[in-house]
Amino acid sequence: MYPCKARTSRKPNFISRLRRLGNDQAGAAAVEFSIVAIPFLFLVCVAIELALILIMRSCLSSALAVAAQEVRVGTVIATGVSNTTSSGSDLDVADFEQLICNNIFLVSTTTCAQQIQVDVRTLSSYNSSSSLNPFSGQTFNANGLCFYSGQAGAIVEVTAYYFWPVPSIPLISMLSTTTSITSGSGTTSGAWFALTSTEIFKSEPDPNIINSGTGC
Domains of the chain: which residue ranges? Predict the structure, then answer.
């Protein structure tokens, strides 16, 4: 019989350790999730933001339709941008904006009034254009907006602009279409997605409806 040989323990070499490490599947799911989690969360945030914008667009269109109906039947009269107080059916710009915001449920009326701009003007015919374009690149100029609904039987164009604030987050910030808003109070910088809704109609030919304002 051969004498028993004493077993010697040898430490695994560097290559053996690499092989074991390569075959080790522990924590693989966590690593894979960390790779896809960040872009996935970005896509989810973008999808949510787009959904909110689409809902707000629908709310703005519905609210403007209600306000435009008030103008069409003579319940509301836009007398001009110089009008600063409300008198019966004669509304100033701020009150008309508030009338629209009262029918928007997605944001508070206070927030809505700060983010909305309106333009009310008469047209010579349905085929004519107001030739109004307050946008120049990513700048919105409110100084050229009008607020005059004309006399009874006039063709009126009512347009509402709502500036939805866009978060300064990568990918989501790319949704911004407006970066500055110029008005009589100065220029405000930020990032917004501009939503626009327009209603064109002929007001009721009621001789009792008298607009004491002046055109634009």
Answer: 32-202
Q: Could you tell me the two tokens for 158?
A: 């009512």
Q: Strand, coil or helix: what is 148?
A: strand
CA distance 177 to 154: 33
Predicted confidence (pLDDT) at residue 71 exceeds the cutoff of 80? yes
Contacts 24+ apart (CB under 8 A), 6-14: none
**Edge to edge, what strands does the sheet with 186-202 contain?**
116-123, 155-165, 186-202, 178-183, 139-141, 135-136
Rounded alpha-carbon distances, angstroms, from residue 159 to 60, 85, 117, 186 = 10, 21, 8, 22
C-alpha to C-alpha distance for 73 and 156, rounded to whole angstroms: 12
CB-CB neighbours of 160 under 10 Å:
25
Average pLDDT over residues 58-79: 94
19 to 11, 26, 32: CA distances (angstroms): 14, 14, 20
Determine what percent of the chain falls in helix, strand and coil, rounding each to the nearest 5: 35, 25, 40
Q: Band of the pLDDT at 104, cuts 50, 70, 90?
A: very high
More confident residue, 13 or 59: 59
Instruction: Say what the pTM is.
Output: 0.80
Distance CA 26, CA 119 (A): 63
> What per-residue confidence (pLDDT) applies to 93?
92
Give 172's DSSP letter: G
Rounded Cα distance, 204 and 174, in Å: 44
Q: What is the pLDDT of residue 25?
A: 57
